[in-house]
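> example.struct
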């Protein structure tokens, strides 16, 4: 009688957009949990700096720059992961961009394409490659965690491309969760509201509200996002968080608009 496949000795996680903000905080959290974390993004310098700091602390990290918008770049990234580690246990699909807050008729089509290419096609390409690797590896299975947004459920004014992209991510998450069942692949989404990072610090100066006014909004420490992702990543594959909303308690969302 054949024995059941043993658990992998090292759990491997991939974080996209790992050079700053939410991606960096999540990568640091997964390192603390004992994952070998593969750090990717378009800028090699912050990835190398984070990997060096992790290694100095006795943690395991590898910096592999890639552009999630580019099919060949993503394939090369996952080929390297499979060659080095033989498996991937967790993908945090985090890389994303926004566009200027302008009426849709004033938004350049190039900016629309940039948001969709990064936030939708990039998420799809990474999830697609992870899904294939997780099907092939032994033991089979793994977890994909997509970075959604409160904008996957309720838009802000003048946020057409970003809101459309995050609604698409929500559909991808649900479909991957369904299609992954027979391969022991779990997929969930974390929807984040007002985590304080370099990119979101402008919100402390005032954000356009649904009634047209400008108002400052409460923010939360990005470490709480990292803790939420760590919880999701640490669950057994028999259990899934399909959707989790982590937000500053007093920000406008419930009742927004």
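> example.seq
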């Amino acid at each position: 009688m054949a024995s059941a496949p043993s658990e992998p000795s090292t759990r491997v996680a991939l974080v996209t957009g790992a050079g700053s903000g939410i991606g960096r905080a999540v990568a640091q959290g997964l390192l603390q949990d004992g994952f070998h974390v593969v750090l990717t993004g378009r800028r090699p310098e912050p990835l190398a700096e984070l990997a060096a700091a992790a290694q100095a602390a006795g943690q395991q990290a590898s910096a592999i720059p890639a552009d999630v918008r580019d099919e060949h770049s993503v394939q090369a990234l996952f080929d390297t992961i499979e060659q080095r580690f033989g498996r991937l246990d967790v993908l945090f699909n985090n890389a994303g961009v926004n566009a200027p807050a302008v009426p849709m008729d004033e938004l350049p089509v190039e900016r629309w394409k940039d948001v969709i290419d990064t936030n939708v096609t990039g998420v799809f390409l990474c999830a697609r490659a992870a899904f294939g690797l997780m099907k092939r590896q032994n033991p089979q299975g793994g977890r994909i965690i997509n970075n959604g947004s409160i904008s996957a459920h309720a838009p802000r004014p003048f946020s057409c491309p970003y809101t459309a992209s995050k609604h698409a991510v929500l559909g991808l998450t649900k479909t991957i969760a369904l299609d992954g069942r027979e391969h022991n692949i779990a997929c969930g989404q974390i929807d984040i509201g007002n985590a304080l990072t370099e990119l979101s610090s402008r919100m402390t100066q005032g954000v356009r509200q649904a009634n047209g006014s400008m108002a400052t909004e409460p923010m939360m420490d990005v470490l709480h996002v990292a803790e939420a992702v760590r919880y999701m990543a640490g669950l057994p594959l028999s259990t899934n968080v399909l959707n989790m909303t982590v937000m500053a308690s007093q920000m406008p969302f419930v009742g927004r608009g």
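> remarks
Helices lie at 21-32, 44-56, 71-85, 109-136, 160-179, 222-234.
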